[in-house]
Amino acid sequence: MNLRHRIRKLAQGKSYNPLKNIRPLIFSKACGEQYRLKLFRSLYESEFCEYDQPLVSVVMTTYSRGELVLNRTAPCVLNQTYQNIEWIIVGDHTAPEHAEAINKIDDPRVCFINLHERGKYPENKKLCRLVAGTKPANYSNMTARGKWIAHMTDDISWEPDHIEKSLENVYANNLELSWAKMSNEVSTDKWEDAGSDQFSDFVMPHSTLLLRFYLKEFLYDPQCYKYGLGGDRSLFRRMYFAGVRGGMSDHLAAKAALRPGTTKMGHRAEDR
């Protein structure tokens, strides 16, 4: 029995979460990412031909922003115009006070998992920023049950129709991966848009991504800092060169306002 038939047999009856059982097979050294992508297409392409109100898994990691998740992120995720979602939040061994804040989110679609041990990241702060969160990111992706996976960041606000518009984009254009522009408050009251319409630029805001469930097998690489790459950019490059069909949606997906008590964004922020 060849690999394809073995995988199909193991996956039988688990349409959207077969990867748990077949990972030992498809992650053998003989199977590269390009081959695995072709294999998954042969197994699941037909399931994406028609729009069927699919379950969308919103995945997010967090470490020290419990109150921000509760007060900023939760309302925009749970009040999307598209409601068939689950929200998986994975804490990177987040502190009790942040876990307590997240547990106040009262919605049956929310699942919060706090890892017992934080990921192993470089001691150098600059290098750590490149890969911090890769461990819970991989965990949240593998926990997702949805046909589609939407990425979210713990200090971002989605526009109300982000998931709806992203689904329209992937079904209209037969895409495996969609992203959109987002607006960043780079300093107080100064906003700039981010995001390129060219996949090959690898400039796709993390919190705007929507991808087919099987693309979660492209794991975040916690060692990519050794090549001068951050987790997202490394992931995008591997997807691009493997041949993932990706395209940009023309809607504004999200806004990244400055976090409370800060006057600059990103790694320059006072709380970093």
Mean pLDDT: 89
How does CATH name the architecture? Alpha-Beta Complex
Question: What's the total helix number?
Answer: 9
The rounded Rg comes to 18 Å
CATH homologous superfamily annotation: Spore Coat Polysaccharide Biosynthesis Protein SpsA, Chain A
Largest sheet: 9 strands, mixed
What level of helicity do the residues show? 25-40%
Strand content: 15-25%
Structural class: alpha/beta
CATH class: Alpha Beta
Provide the domain count: 1
Which regions have little confidence, pLDDT < 50, spanning 5+ residues?
6-30
Distance between the termini: 53 Å
Quick one: overall form?
globular
- By CATH, the topology is Spore Coat Polysaccharide Biosynthesis Protein SpsA, Chain A
Order of helices and strands: HHHEHEHEHHEEHEEEHE
Q: Number of DSSP strands?
A: 9
Give a written overview of the molecule.
This protein has 272 residues and is α/β, with parallel strands linked by helices. Helices cover 33% and strands 21% of the residues. It contains nine helices and nine strands. Strands 1, 2, 3, 4, 5, 6, 7, 8 and 9 form a nine-stranded mixed β-sheet that branches. It starts with a helix and ends in a 16-residue tail after the last strand.
Short summary:
33% of the residues lie in helices and 21% in strands. It is of the alpha/beta class.
Outline the secondary-structure elements:
Blueprint: H1 3-11, H2 19-26, H3 33-44, E1 56-62, H4 66-78, E2 85-91, H5 96-102, E3 110-114, H6 125-131, H7 134-143, E4 148-152, E5 157-158, H8 162-173, E6 177-187, E7 190-194, E8 210-212, H9 231-242, E9 246-256
Parallel strand pairs: 1-2, 1-4, 2-3, 6-9
Antiparallel strand pairs: 4-8, 5-9, 6-7, 6-8
Helix pairs in contact: 1-2, 3-9, 4-5
